[in-house]
Amino acid sequence: MDIVVAHDFYQQRGGEDQCVEDEVKMLRSHGHNVTEYFVHNDSLEGMPPLTLAANTIWSRQAFNDLGAIVRDRRPQVVHFHNTLPLISPSAYYATKQHGAAVVQTLHNYRLLCPNGLFFRQGRVCEDCCGKMVPWPAIKNKCYRASRAATATISGMLAIHKLAGTWRSAVDMYIALSEFGRSKLVAGGFPASRVATKPNFLARDAQPGPGRGGYVIYAGRLSSEKGVDLLLEAWGALGREVPLKIIGDGPMAGRVKDACSQEPAIEWLGQLDIEAVYELVGDAEALIVPSRCYENFPRVIVEAFGKGTPVIAPGFGPIGEIIENGVTGLLFRPGDASDLVQKVRGMMADGVARAHMRRAAYRAYADNFTEGVNHKSLMRIYERAIATADASRRRQSIRVYAETRQKTPQ
């Protein structure tokens, strides 16, 4: 296939950026011709606010750039990832204008929630889901704690909902979980155009030894990730279980303070991916303490690839990924005391933990390898192409009928 992949890279690199790079490598390794249309949010520095707002709603630059690429390369599919703010939905129309199918992977809940997280003031929030104008987000300054910035995102969502962009300009959406798909459908997206494809591990993983005697957290140090919950749990666990923390973020100061008060906690900061894999593989368990729904945490797949069981809250997509008592343990969302009990249970039963390690690796091998993911993506591309072809036929019939009505008999 000839494919264009479009993505707006974040200023602070995250898992979504890695997912895009891994998927491009996967496509090329299977013989597809991939053209990259990549922009970077570093270019936002110094951009006037009104220009940024206009680009978020309709980027002329992206419309012209994608139009030229699709016209020249004639791809069957243009696959979008992050479009905010430099690509914008204008690029869908440029793609359709030149005959390619449009696929959009949704790495977050942005089309239903301006901050993309379904999370506000320390709790899950779905106040904007399904609304024509997501006014609660504007009221609460949900995007970057700015009413103006939130209004820009909310306006973009409302304008394109009113214009029918989300229903007609995208041939297939990719949700990362059935939970995410159900939210999109509940929010008004056509069920027939929303497929499910999880993240994958772009390597031939092998189980780690799992004999390090510690548990591990790897991710952004922030409230929605449940870092405060993690630290609260270790306030009760004390020195019972060593905890290694990998990552950085706005709660780094609290993590540093916790390390100074509790010797069992070790903060390693940011590490390269190979070091993370090695530490996750030797951990007794990975902890994902998120307070938000997440979408599909890459770190869980990375842990499964190393045969490491996961302790996580039993809600949202995580409840789909982890089979309680088989590939890990699920605790009550937001409940530090239940997290403590699950950690103690995991560490106390070496036989059960060994079974979980084998089951976690099987889950990776069956569901999250590159080969399995490629087959799933090809099926979605085929559906997108068929949808685009059917739309063009309907448009041709409509134009023909209108022409006939206007032609004197």
Automatic annotation (TrEMBL):
Domain of life: Bacteria
InterPro entries (UniProt xref): Glyco_trans_1, Glycosyltransferase_grp1
UniProt keyword annotations, A-Z: Transferase
Annotated SUPFAM superfamilies: UDP-Glycosyltransferase/glycogen phosphorylase
Transferase is among the record's keywords: yes
Domain Glycosyl transferase family: 211-362
GO molecular function: transferase activity
Protein name, entry field: Glycosyl transferase family 1
Organism field: Methylocystis iwaonis
